[in-house]
């Protein structure tokens, strides 16, 4: 049998009761018109009554244009070219066989077509002299191609083809270039891929040297592997581990991995540990393998040593830096005293509380003033409360205290200054006391 859209086929019509693969072309009132993919796309018809065993409510839900369907041949009229087909009479066993045969035929046709295109030989001649004889000798050309994967078997197949199909002569189309092309395509597409087998377990050991015991158990599991089925064991995230192996024989791989799990379990339980099998040994797909690889990478990234979190606590400022030599003494003191206390407060979180740290607490103006050799009158003169009489401070020749001629004005200014200074002094003491209490709370002190 040839394959989809191939014009070269051995038989023009299928046999009655044969299950064939078709492609739906159109849907009509009487049924669906289809093309027989394995017989040169000749036309057939699936009767409406042969679509389903149940009552048909919607034909579109049962069959769609363009879909490939396995159907059974009911009647063949070679004179008129009519082929009646049935979809409802196909059993699940016949369905599986038809799909398997069709997949193999697709592969055979793909190899034949590629060889014909690359070597320049005639595709119809290649089918006639090579493919169809292999169908007759091996039941399907795919079986012959699967045998030709090894070098020794390939020569035996070519020799049998020449002896049984061509009377001991090599067919003309089977040149050395065609042979090499067939073998290259067969080995590229039919070389069996190793099957991945995997088992998931959880293992713990709380003994004194538990880590070493777990390592010994992992070594015992790996020792259970063979040359054809090597076993590896990896840590995903404690206490989860995975055992994996690759093999061409699925049954053998599952058997070897099961023995490895048993060896690991015996070793860890002998060391007063515990192991639970979460997933038995089974064949896994590429998708599951990619998911496991991503999980391993995520666990590795999470366990990788990183630098600790940076300390984001705000640093305490030691106050304003004043260059007494460059700036005037009076200007420097005024700037220090006029700095708003509230605007210099900083907040930080400590055990759910908010602690107010005042820069005024960290500044000792008296010590700075004494270090600079500043007298108390000069310090009082620099206070912002006396800003109202700054113009009077520059007065000359008045002969009065602070240059104020009016006694009542002098005493009014003195009283206002005393009140302002007292309020400022009391508020500063309250802020210092509150800060001391908060600091004592931080250090767990109680008075």
Automatic annotation (TrEMBL):
UniProt KW Transport keyword: no
Subcellular location: Plastid, Chloroplast thylakoid membrane
Its membrane topology: Single-pass membrane protein
Transmembrane parts of this sequence: 409-427
Pfam family, one: S1
GO molecular function, one term: ribosome binding
Entry's Gene Ontology BP terms: photosynthesis
Highest taxon listed in the record's lineage: Eukaryota
Key words of the record: Chloroplast, Coiled coil, Initiation factor, Membrane, Phosphoprotein, Photosynthesis, Photosystem II, Plastid, Protein biosynthesis, Thylakoid, Transmembrane, Transmembrane helix
Domain spans labelled S1 motif: 17-88
Keyword Thylakoid: yes
Cellular component, GO, one term: eukaryotic translation initiation factor 2 complex
Annotated coiled-coil segments of the chain: 278-309
InterPro entries tied to this protein: NA-bd_OB-fold, PSII_PsbW_class2, S1_domain, S1_IF2_alpha, TIF2_asu_C, TIF2_asu_middle_sf, TIF_2_asu
Family stated for the protein in its record: Belongs to the eIF-2-alpha family. Belongs to the psbW family.
Protein name, as recorded: PSII 6.1 kDa protein
């Amino acid at each position: 049998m040839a394959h989809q859209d191939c014009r070269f086929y051995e038989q023009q019509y299928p046999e009655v009761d044969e299950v064939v693969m078709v492609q739906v072309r159109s849907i009509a009132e009487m049924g669906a018109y289809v093309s027989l993919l394995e017989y040169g796309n000749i036309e057939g018809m699936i009767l409406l009554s042969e679509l389903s065993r149940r009552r048909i409510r919607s034909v579109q839900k049962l069959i769609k244009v363009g879909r490939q369907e396995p159907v059974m041949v009911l009647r063949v009229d070679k004179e008129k070219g009519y082929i009646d087909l049935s979809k409802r009479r196909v059993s699940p066993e016949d369905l599986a066989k038809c799909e398997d045969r069709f997949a193999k035929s697709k592969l055979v046709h793909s190899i034949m077509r590629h060889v014909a295109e690359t070597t320049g030989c005639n595709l119809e001649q290649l089918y006639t002299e090579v493919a169809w004889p292999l169908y007759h000798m091996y039941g399907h050309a795919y079986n012959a191609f699967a045998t030709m994967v090894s070098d020794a078997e390939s020569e035996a197949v070519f020799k049998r083809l020449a002896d049984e199909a061509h009377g001991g002569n090599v067919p003309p189309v089977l040149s050395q270039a065609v042979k090499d092309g067939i073998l290259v395509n067969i080995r590229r597409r039919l070389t069996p891929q190793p099957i991945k087998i995997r088992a998931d377990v959880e293992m713990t050991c709380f003994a004194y040297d538990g880590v070493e015991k777990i390592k010994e158990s992992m070594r015992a599991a790996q020792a259970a592997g063979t040359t054809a089925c090597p076993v590896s064991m990896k840590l995903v995230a404690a206490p989860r581990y995975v055992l994996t192996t690759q093999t061409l024989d699925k049954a053998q791989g599952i058997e070897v991995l099961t023995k490895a799990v048993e060896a690991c379990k015996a070793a860890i339980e002998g060391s007063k540990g515990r192991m639970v099998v979460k997933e038995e040994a089974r064949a896994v797909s590429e998708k599951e393998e990619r998911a496991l690889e991503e999980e391993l990478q995520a666990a590795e990234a999470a366990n990788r040593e990183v630098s600790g979190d940076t300390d984001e606590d705000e640093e305490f400022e030691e106050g304003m830096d004043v260059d007494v030599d460059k700036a005037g003494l009076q200007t420097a003191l005024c700037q220090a005293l006029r700095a708003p206390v509230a605007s210099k407060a900083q907040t930080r979180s400590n055990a759910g509380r908010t602690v107010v740290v005042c820069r005024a607490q960290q500044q000792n103006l008296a010590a700075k003033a004494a270090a600079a050799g500043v007298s108390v009158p000069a310090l009082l003169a620099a206070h912002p409360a006396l800003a109202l009489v700054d113009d009077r401070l520059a007065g000359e020749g008045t002969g009065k205290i602070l240059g104020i001629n009016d006694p009542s004005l002098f005493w009014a200014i003195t009283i206002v200054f005393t009140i302002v200074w007292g309020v400022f002094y009391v508020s500063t003491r309250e802020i210092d006391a509150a800060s001391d209490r908060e600091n004592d709370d931080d250090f767990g002190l109680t008075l």
